[in-house]
Amino acid sequence: MKNVFFKPWIGENYSTTGISGKKILLLGESHICGEGCGDCGNLLEHPNCSEFTNNAAKYFFNYKNGNGGFEYWMNGYTKFGNIFYNKHLSYDETVAFWDSIIFYNYVQYSTDKARVSPTNEEFEKSSDAFFEILEAYKPDLVFVWGERLWDQLPFSEDCGEDIIIDNSNGGKFYYYTLDEKKTPIYMINHPSSSAFNYSWHKFMQKAIELV
């Protein structure tokens, strides 16, 4: 995958049991890094940065196990799992969940601080990497974290069908077709926002049932 800079977190059970037998990809927006490198995204110059996503997952597990410090972004990781299963997950349950999915941040360039959007150009330049991820791991369903990311995804007649609106909760479906495989993606509110609450549980389960 020549265009992927931040390698995805791949749960060890993703390709076998998955979640209810389905392969699920969680699609976040971007990483936050305060280094301010002008050539962020250059794998030859910053090879260690390619593990950013995987290291973040490991930090999260250490914190949940009482062996690491808390960082604000961890709230989204915790909250998604809890709402997905409609209960407060134990450490073991949290690890089991993350061992069953893929997590990937769409934008292959980091931002300097929280609540700063990547540029339109950075979104556009990250699309090839996204399609490489879909082709390599062939998820049955993608949960898109947030409307800002959704609005920047590469939708076109060449790669999908019409958007289907779930009017009951504002969720959106879209189908990419790659190598004759239809991959549905479903937008939810970003897990760090107050709009993402336990009411989303039934809609996420419905999305899984539809694939």
User: What's the CATH topology name?
Assistant: Uracil-DNA Glycosylase, subunit E
Overall average pLDDT: 83
Structural class: alpha/beta
Radius of gyration: 16 Å
Provide an overview of this structure.
This protein is of the alpha/beta class and about 210 residues long. About 30% of the residues lie in helices and about 15% in strands. It has 7 helices and 7 strands. A 7-stranded mixed beta sheet has the order 1-3-2-4-7-6-5.
Summary of the model, kept short:
By secondary structure, this protein is of the alpha/beta class. It contains seven helices and seven strands. The protein has one domain (9-210): Uracil-DNA Glycosylase, subunit E (3-Layer(aba) Sandwich), CATH 3.40.470.
SSE blueprint and pairings:
Blueprint: E1 9-10, E2 24-28, H1 52-64, H2 74-85, H3 91-98, E3 102-105, H4 120-125, H5 127-137, E4 141-145, H6 147-152, E5 164-166, E6 171-178, E7 181-188, H7 200-210
Parallel strand pairs: 2-3, 2-4, 4-7
Antiparallel strand pairs: 1-3, 5-6, 6-7
